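Propose amino acids for all 336 sites.
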């Protein structure tokens, strides 16, 4: 069974937690308290039947993948998320709010912190109308998420995720525990900015091929772009990669759509140049806009030598030369 969330790349969060049947029953018996979930007053949850959605696909969909909003101190705003049930009838879903942070080594876009408070904690300021809902097959719920910043909120970024989880009895989803239920979670990321005196700073710190490889036998070629955010709010860098050959002619171009980097963190983005037929030395230049029209530039050089093809060519040439030498060594040509 698959669980997925469409939307921006990297924004889907899926975590699978294995529990035993007894624990699942105990959890189902106690539904009056839900950890990490604040229940809001205000707009209520609405539901609708998705046209043609009564087909059992085996997953559920949460959207959008990311919400960015500016909230002033003491202000309350609402943003909707949707949950669509495509698993089976009468499926229950639970809402959990967790803080998140960036990665110190660039390996992950976000790190969910569970019960821990994040460095830019948001979970105490986000709430939903009710902690659980039940949806029929093909039914979609629209959940108004309430964001209320306290009057003394300091300027800067606040980051968290509203996670939607459901219990499943998919025996094929686990090898070790047989029929044990699993919990799948999908999240919408919330990026809240409180306006004021903030620090918006960051830079490109590394651009190279994956593994810092310099020699290739063929394409495609994958590059790693590492960006560090040293400010107090998230950044959305974007840019482009241009590839030129030995003669200086442009032979490749890759557009880099904006991607987010959380404050005080590093994120590495992998980008692939999809070109199969390559030969020779190439210069690859990345230009990364920090989001304020400040552009960082970095270049790498690489060689592509298709040794299998070259070996075949040299092998054919060797055979041709050998045949000619053998032929002329066996026959003598005389003028009449």
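Proposal:
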């Amino acid at each position: 069974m698959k669980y997925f969330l469409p939307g921006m790349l990297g924004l889907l969060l899926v975590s699978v937690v294995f529990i035993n049947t007894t624990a699942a029953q105990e959890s189902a018996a106690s539904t009056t308290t839900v950890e990490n979930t604040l229940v809001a007053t205000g707009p209520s949850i609405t539901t609708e039947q998705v046209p043609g959605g009564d087909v059992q696909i085996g997953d559920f969909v949460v959207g959008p993948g990311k919400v960015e909003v500016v909230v002033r101190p003491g202000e309350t705003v609402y943003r909707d998320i949707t949950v669509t049930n495509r698993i089976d009838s009468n499926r229950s879903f639970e809402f959990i709010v967790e803080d998140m942070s960036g990665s110190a080594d660039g390996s992950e876009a976000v790190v969910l912190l569970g019960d821990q408070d994040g460095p830019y904690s948001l979970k105490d300021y986000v709430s939903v109308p009710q902690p659980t809902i039940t949806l029929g097959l093909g039914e979609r719920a629209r959940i108004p998420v309430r964001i209320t910043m306290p009057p003394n909120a300091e300027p800067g970024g606040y980051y968290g995720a509203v996670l939607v989880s459901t219990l499943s009895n998919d025996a094929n989803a686990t090898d070790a525990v047989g029929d044990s239920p699993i919990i799948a979670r999908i999240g919408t990321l919330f990026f809240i900015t409180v306006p004021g005196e903030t620090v918006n700073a960051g830079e490109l710190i590394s651009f190279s091929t994956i593994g810092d490889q310099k020699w290739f036998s063929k394409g495609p070629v994958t590059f790693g772009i590492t960006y560090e955010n040293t400010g107090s709010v998230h950044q959305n860098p974007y840019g482009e990669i241009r590839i030129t050959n030995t003669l200086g002619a442009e032979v490749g171009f890759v557009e880099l759509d904006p991607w987010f980097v959380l404050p005080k963190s590093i994120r590495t983005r992998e980008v692939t140049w999809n070109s199969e037929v390559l030969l020779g030395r190439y210069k690859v230049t990345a230009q990364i806009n920090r989001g304020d029209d400040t552009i960082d530039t970095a270049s790498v050089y690489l060689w592509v030598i298709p040794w299998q093809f070259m070996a075949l060519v040299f092998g054919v040439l060797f055979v041709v030369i050998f045949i000619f030498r053998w032929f002329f060594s066996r026959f003598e040509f005389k003028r009449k």
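Residues 1-35, 171-179 have pLDDT under 50 and may be disordered. The two ends are 86 Å apart (CA to CA).
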